[in-house]
Design brief:
The protein is mainly α. Helix content is about 75%, strand content about 0%. The protein has 17 helices and no strands. One of its GO terms (biological process) is regulation of gene expression.
Amino acid sequence: MIKNIYYLLLMYAVSLITTGLFIVLHIPLPWILGPLVAVFLLNFLTKFHLEQNKTILNVSFLLTGAQIGSTFTSTTLKGVIPYFIPFLIITILLIVICIQSGTLLAKYANIEKTTGILGSVPGGLSVMVAMSDSMKANTGLVAIFHTIRLMAVLFIVPLLASFFFTDNHAELALPNETPSEFSGWTFVIYVLLFGLAFLLRFKIPASYVLIPMMIIAVIKLLSLPISDVPISLYHFAQLSIGIHLGLSIRMADLKKAGNFSWIFFLFTCFIISISTGLGYIFALFSELSFATAMLSLAPGGLVEMAITAGEVNADPAIVGSLQLVRMLFIILLLPFLLKKMYILPIDRQ
């Protein structure tokens, strides 16, 4: 117990130091990428049994979801609803490109088609691993491919977005930096949200992010009084999520992939390029900025892309909403489409 607390404090201490360095160097997403790099290296260079505290992590997801939800306005709805169908069409096009590319990847790498496709579709790691189990794919390779994608997206997309869309390092997604009172009413709401997310954790994917995001958004749209997430708590939440991401990436997994690693890294860069091009087209046919459109289609996670949106003066609420639409599409419809259209129930190449 004492050793676990020591390791936890060590991870946070090293992460804070690295985050400070990233801030000085003006590296994007310092509060996520800093701890990610720090904990990944700490895990690789030591034999410590490092684990993130589940409660701390879930509270951090809740705070992040609440912050994304607090950026919702009536303008957000007006910005999303007219372009829902075009976004869905472009999302389907991107997923089809990923599926076809995954098929070619499987043929080139001499692996099962099921494995190649599930490793290529831009879904969440846990979701795609669960799908690979049910569809008889090589779950280990699918997990490794998505680990490589996660690393590439977390570093390339924020750097790309920062280079094109901002002239200086600013964290625009952060709550108002002027101190504001965190009301007792807000604390009660957050406790209730945590309890609701806990009860629905097996029924709603990423419940600790989605439930507070949607409910806080409704509260904001109804103009009900609720405090913003304090900046110190928001930084702590990002730090905790960064530590979690750093622990999820293991050098052993990357080594296990062997020659597949560089192939899939290049493939991920290709998908990022395609999503950037589609984002540009989406921006042309909508009133959304290029940054907002690009990050809405980027093959990254909802939380990471919404936070990046704030840094580059895009709209975090719209990015979060559209990333949510894609995530739900992948979870609800993709397994059915793959089984019916692309993959036989048992794929033995």
